């Protein structure tokens, strides 16, 4: 099925999924010092909510997970503010023009950092509603990594501010966080992207409708360039939700 959006034609029958599935196996990626997700059948006495156990006509599982630490997730500025803001209330549109770029983080003071110059150079002056950042090297192990205490690459504060000032509303990245793992709680890139100056008293020009999506995976065969993004979330009243970002080629 084809559709026209902003004078661009896209084939909706050919989605490109850049999310990482959430599982209860050791293949699941993990960040922030937690254990893997738990997916298990409900048990009431002798009754087990699992058809293969022969005691239920349905599979009836409980799922315990953390959206920030267990896979692809989309978050709003409520992730860092004292007051409660929900991703379900902040994200009200779900289709955006997006630019996919690939960046090899630079070594700065022993860290791997994505810089403003790299983002600016990769965008080449293009304007877009959303940006997907694929880091190089783009190993398939990103889908299964255990990130805790590994000091993964992150986004420099001025790079996040450049993205903000460029009018980009949605940032997607294949890392567990846009900020450094151990940063003394500064969260400089988060604050710069959302234009938050005081987490205890939110400034009037903070970007309530903007989101950050972390822990995606963009396969090598997906070329850099412009796409249509469908940013799908579950309707959680929480600062973040597991998400399923989908790209569509623009024809």
Automatic annotation (TrEMBL):
InterPro entries: KFase/CYL, KFase_sf. It comes from the Bacteria. This is Cyclase family protein. It comes from Flavobacterium turcicum. The lineage of its organism: Bacteria, Pseudomonadati, Bacteroidota, Flavobacteriia, Flavobacteriales.
């Amino acid at each position: 099925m084809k559709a026209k959006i902003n004078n661009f034609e896209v084939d909706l029958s050919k989605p490109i999924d850049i999310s990482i599935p959430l599982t209860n196996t050791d293949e699941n990626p993990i960040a922030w010092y937690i254990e893997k997700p738990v997916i298990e059948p409900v048990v009431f006495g002798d009754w087990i909510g699992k058809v293969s156990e022969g005691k239920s006509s349905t599979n009836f599982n409980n799922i315990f997970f953390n959206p920030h630490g267990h896979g692809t997730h989309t978050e709003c500025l409520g992730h860092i503010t004292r007051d409660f803001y929900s991703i379900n209330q902040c994200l009200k549109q779900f289709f955006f023009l997006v630019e996919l770029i690939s960046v090899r983080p630079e070594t700065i003071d022993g860290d791997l950092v994505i810089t403003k110059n790299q983002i600016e150079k990769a965008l080449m002056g293009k304007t877009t509603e959303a940006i997907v950042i694929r880091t190089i090297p783009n190993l398939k192990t990103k889908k299964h990594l255990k990130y805790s205490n590994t000091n993964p690459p992150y986004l420099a504060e001025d790079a996040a501010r450049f993205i903000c000032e460029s009018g980009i509303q949605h940032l997607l990245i294949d890392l567990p966080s846009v900020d450094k793992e151990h940063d003394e709680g500064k969260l400089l890139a988060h604050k710069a992207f959302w234009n938050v100056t005081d987490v205890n008293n939110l400034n009037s020009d903070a970007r309530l409708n903007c989101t950050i999506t972390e822990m995606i995976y963009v396969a090598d065969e997906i070329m850099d360039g412009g796409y249509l993004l469908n940013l799908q979330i579950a309707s959680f009243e929480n600062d973040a939700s597991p998400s399923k970002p989908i790209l569509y080629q623009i024809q």
